[in-house]
Automatic annotation (TrEMBL):
PANTHER family per record: PROTEIN YJDN, PROTEIN YJDN-RELATED
Protein name, as recorded: PhnB protein
Organism (species): Microbacterium murale
Highest taxon above the source species: Bacteria
Organismal lineage: Bacteria, Bacillati, Actinomycetota, Actinomycetes, Micrococcales
CDD domains linked: PhnB_like
One Pfam family, short name: Glyoxalase
Gene3D superfamilies, A to Z: 2,3-Dihydroxybiphenyl 1,2-Dioxygenase, domain 1 (3.10.180.10)
Positions of the Glyoxalase/fosfomycin resistance/dioxygenase domain: 6-125
Length: 131
């Protein structure tokens, strides 16, 4: 691990969400069920732990009965300069599918490009680059 890795608790759709992020960002996907972790506090096929590793690292699971599911307010995940401009443009487009482009990815008066999108799972992303 190279630094801060977000860990998200999903409301029963961790497999779907983490698979989506894997499709967007690539890397390696790992998923482990409650059954594999000998957890009995939820459905055996619920995700007890999963994640993607690669250019973007992200982990998560299905929220347990005593956990709130993800609801982030007043924050975004920043992917400023984490890949080539073409890759960042593609990530922005893919995250927008089923989500909302809050501020389109565009050139700013200071010369850099950035934009913000909330994806279909309610996660807000800030994506940008310099040319």
């Amino acid at each position: 691990m190279s630094g801060l890795v977000p860990y998200l608790f999903f409301p029963g759709n961790a497999r779907e969400a983490l698979t989506f992020y894997h499709e967007v960002f690539g890397g390696e996907l790992s998923l482990f069920t409650y059954e594999q972790f000998s957890r009995t506090d939820g459905p055996s096929d619920a995700i007890a732990h999963g994640g993607i590793s690669g250019n973007v690292e992200l982990s998560g699971s299905d929220a347990g009965p005593d956990q709130d599911s993800v609801h982030i307010v007043g924050a975004s995940f920043s992917l400023l300069g984490t890949a080539e401009p073409e890759v960042l443009q593609e990530w922005f487009a893919q995250l927008s599918v089923g989500g909302t482009a809050i501020d389109p990815l565009q050139k700013r008066p200071w010369g850099d490009f950035d934009g913000q999108v909330t994806d279909r799972y309610g996660i807000r992303w800030l994506i940008g680059y310099q040319e």
